[in-house]
Structures are given as C-alpha cells and as structure tokens.
Design goal:
This protein is an all-beta fold. The protein contains no helices and eleven strands.
C-alpha cells in the first residue's frame, strides 16, 4: 500500500506565496519522478511541474518563473514553492509519483489533492 499525503494549500491574496508538500509512504523500492498537477472547476487536469529522480525539472509555461519544484529524496517528499500567485492559479493541486514497486515494475500514484485559492 502506497500513500501520497499533501499539505500546504489554503487561501492567499494575489501576489502571495504558498508552499505545498507531498510525502510518499508505504511499500515501494524507490521513487522515479514526482510532480504536481492541478484541476480547476470545469477544466481538465493540467501539469504544473515535474522533477525526475536526477533532479531534472519541467514546468508549465503558465507557472515558469513563479513556481519552483524540489524534492528531498531522504524524506520521499516533493515540494512546490508558489510565488507571485494569481487568481488563475486557483485549483485543486494533486501530487503524482511514479514509483518502482518492484525491481522491474513501476506504478503511478496520486494524492488526494489540496485546495489553493488565490483571491482578495
């Protein structure tokens, strides 16, 4: 059983900052890539940022320069530092992890999501 537990969402004013965390726990060999996605009401889920096991990062154009993804491999945790937040960043943010569940098989897991609301 694998769990991804997110934290750090909330209400923030435009221009403000939030830091999301996502910790993976359970039975797995190692973590391949981790990432953050978001889904706003009435919209499809979209990629926000990903980070590979080697630390290579990828960002959506809409957040590049404002958001920073990082990971602590010792803690099996991925972070998303969000600065200069805009109302259009309002969404449920979901953590994703690609895990080696055996020495030959990978599987994708999702967290339950954390709400980020950017509003006056």
């Amino acid at each position: 059983q694998v769990h991804l537990v997110e934290s750090g969402g909330g209400l923030v004013q435009p221009g403000g900052s939030l830091r999301l965390s996502c910790a993976a726990s359970g039975s797995f060999f190692s973590i391949n890539s981790m990432g953050w996605y978001r889904q706003a009401p009435g919209k499809e889920r979209e990629l926000v940022a990903t980070i590979s096991s080697g630390g290579n990062t990828n960002y959506a154009d809409s957040v590049s320069g404002r958001f920073t993804i990082s990971r602590d491999n010792a803690k099996n945790t991925v972070y998303l530092q969000m600065n200069s937040l805009k109302p259009e960043d309002t969404a449920v943010y979901l953590c994703n992890a690609i895990l080696w569940i055996t020495d030959r098989a990978q599987a994708a897991y999702w967290g339950q999501g954390t709400q980020v609301t950017v509003s006056l």
